[in-house]
Amino acid sequence: MLAFIRKRLRHALLLSLALLPLLGLTGFLFAHQLLSVDNGDVHGDVMVVLGGGYGERPDWAAHLFKAGVAPKIILTGAGDAVDNQRLLVNRGIPAEAIELEAASKSTKQNAQFTIPLLRAAGAHRVILVTSWYHSRRSLNCFRHYAPDIEFYSRQAAPGPSETKRQFTHYVVSEYVKAAGYWVCYGVRPF
Q1: Three-state secondary structure string covering the chain
Q2: Cα–Cα distance, 101 to 76 (Å, whole number)
Q3: What is the distance between the alpha carbons of residues 104 and 76, in angstroms, rounded to a whole number?
Q4: Crossing angle, helix 2-29 and helix 164-185, to 10 degrees?
Q5: How many CB atoms lie within 10 A of CB 131?
Q6: pLDDT tens column, 116-155
Q7: Is 39:153 a contact under the CB 8 Å cutoff?
Q8: What's the rounded Cα separation, in Å, for the pair 79 and 105?
Q9: C-alpha–C-alpha distance, residues 34 and 43, integer Å
Q10: Calpha distance 18→77 (Å, rounded)
Q11: Nearest 5°: CA angle at 29, between 24 and 35?
Q12: Cβ proximity of 117 and 98 under 8 Å
């Protein structure tokens, strides 16, 4: 009986090892479908621009603000919030429409530190602005920590200079982070 169990475990392990490359290939071929969420033409009480990226996030937020998507912007991220505020003001966004959350150093902290600001502002519909590869995890994270608020995602387009190497880095990193957020914080990846 023990030999039979060992044989079955060995077969299961070999099958798992054989399927691993297929799973990895699928993750790369369908990265945009698996990692990105864009809710399209939605309007909200506040836009939250997450730190990170290469300037595409505040650029997209400025465009959305001028299109009337939300009357207020909260910028998140230690270091990024102040830089992004400068970018938005230079793009014609009024300084009084911008609020900063400049202490967070992760997506989890973006959510935890920004949610009290959203509640204080009486926000019910919030639009998250981030990069395509970060949109699903950030949306799931904010929804996890504030299920009473409606969150939507508007992903910034990748920069025209995004290389194959950067794409690979973003995708691998995001899958690892999504798994980590699921295991460590209970934020479901899908």
Answers
A1: CHHHHHHHHHHHHHHHHHHHHHHHHHHHHCHHHHHCCCCCCCCCCEEEECCCCCCHHHHHHHHHHHCCCCCCEEEECCCHHHHHHHHHHHCCCCHHHEEEECCCCCHHHHHHHHHHHHHHCCCCEEEEEEEHHHHHHHHHHHHHHCCCCEEEEEEECCCCCCCHHHHHHHHHHHHHHHHHHHHHHCCCCC
A2: 5
A3: 7
A4: 130
A5: 24
A6: 999 999 999 999 999 988 999 999 999 999 999 999 999 8
A7: yes
A8: 9
A9: 24
A10: 41
A11: 85
A12: no
> What is the amino acid identity at position 68?
G
Residue type, 78: A
How far lies 183's CA from each of 57, 89, 132, 176, 186, in Å? Answer: 28, 39, 23, 11, 6
Query: What residue type is assigned to position 111 of the chain?
Result: A
Which domains can be identified in the chain, with CATH numbers?
Answer: 37-156+163-185 (3.40.50.620)
Q: What is the pLDDT of residue 8?
A: 79
Q: pLDDT digit string (tens) for 13-52?
A: 776 666 667 666 676 677 778 888 899 999 999 999 999 8
